[in-house]
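Same chain as my last thread, 494 residues:
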Amino acid sequence: MTRPPFARVLVANRGEIAVRVMRTLQLRGVSAVAVYHRADAGSPHVAMADQAVELVGSGPVAAYLDSAQIIAAALATGAEAIHPGYGFLSENAAFAQSVADAGLTFIGPDAATIALMGDKLSARAFAQAHGVPVAPSVAFDGDFAAFETAVAAVGYPMLIKAAAGGGGKGMSIVREAAALRETVRVAASEATRYFGDGRVYAEVLVEQPRHIEVQVVGDGAGAALHLFERECSVQRRFQKIVEEAPAANLAEDLRAAMCADAVRLASASRYRNVGTVEFILGADGRYFFLEMNTRLQVEHPVTEMITGLDLVSLQLDIAAGAGLPFGQADVVATGHAIECRICAEAPDRGFVPATGAIRHLTVPRAPWLRFESALREGQAVTADFDPMLAKLVVHGATRAQAIDRAGAALADLAVLGLDTNVDSLARVIAHPAFTGGALHTGFLTEHADALAAPAMDDAAQAAFLIAAALGNHDFRQLVDAVPEPYASLGGWRN
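reply #2:
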């Protein structure tokens, strides 16, 4: 790789994604600057950075959302650019503009593009204007009676969504008129809490759709291309937990059409840097534009694994003004990749987030595997952040091989000390419907009984308790301790 014209880049994020970005920065010979709240002082991303700046705030999240502090840290350390990662300020148009106003480079699209695509209503209108199919919808402007009449005209069921939202927040299904008012109220309240914007709209609900997204990249001057698609249909609470590339059992004409629409949208918006155009695909073969994420996606490693590209490196080059380094014909997909999101949560209790400390961590190793994390033994997992702990990503020559490798890697992964979804993920990818590619966003609900944790008999429970006790440092010290007076006699025994 050649070195871009950035000597130093500040990573405005934490945890797994900060480590991921810094890995490429350092491979490119670019100095990496970390920011951190005191709760993360001992975190791997801080240790990995060439320089680190502490952020202060009323809490960890408030600190990482303090754009003024972050920009001041970049200027103070001599950073020339800021990489936002994903989450936090990554899709905040005001932050992107502030970065540019400070004379720094924002490694992502410009503020106008973020604002256009970050608002679901304006993004839908833009997509529709450029020939990209959009599901019928109704915007709520405060007049509930008019909204109710318009929704009835379109027809139930509907999906209530936050106009400024994402990640499943501010999203609810309503199947009958009697539930509409309360559903809108709750969705608007959640949207206000998460995004500071209570606007919502109703969109036709496509029952049991597939969630297909296309990775795009643009030079900011109208040139754009795609890096193929990803399947993100296995979700809980509208949030992805298993992603793969390419999508399973996707007809070639559909693949070509969706990729072409994604590129058309990126080109029309003069998109700069990498982004993702998301679609929902119905059982009847119709698909609709869902949203555009103007940042690096959590699931970008599966695209990297099938294309051999480093998307963060590509981001750096485009942000530095190098343009697109290749054409569409140069992008080739090889094999199949699957990503499993490792989360601190209890799948058998409705996926409620879990907290605790990581007492033991064993990570599988293989040339076809990536374990993306910022985990360490003894690390406290709190309710301050998203419950995702890590990403386990595998590649195989075929989808069947990738599934086998993912299953073997999950079996070898041990994250002890708190509830995780590791065993649940193993059951998901081993399920016949998954291996057969019969995927949709209701997959976990449809197969809930088969995916539930098996009951543990007394013998198995006893074995787990013994193993846990033997693995406990204090317990082992007590067992191995030599009682008095024999301890005082040293090594001599009669």
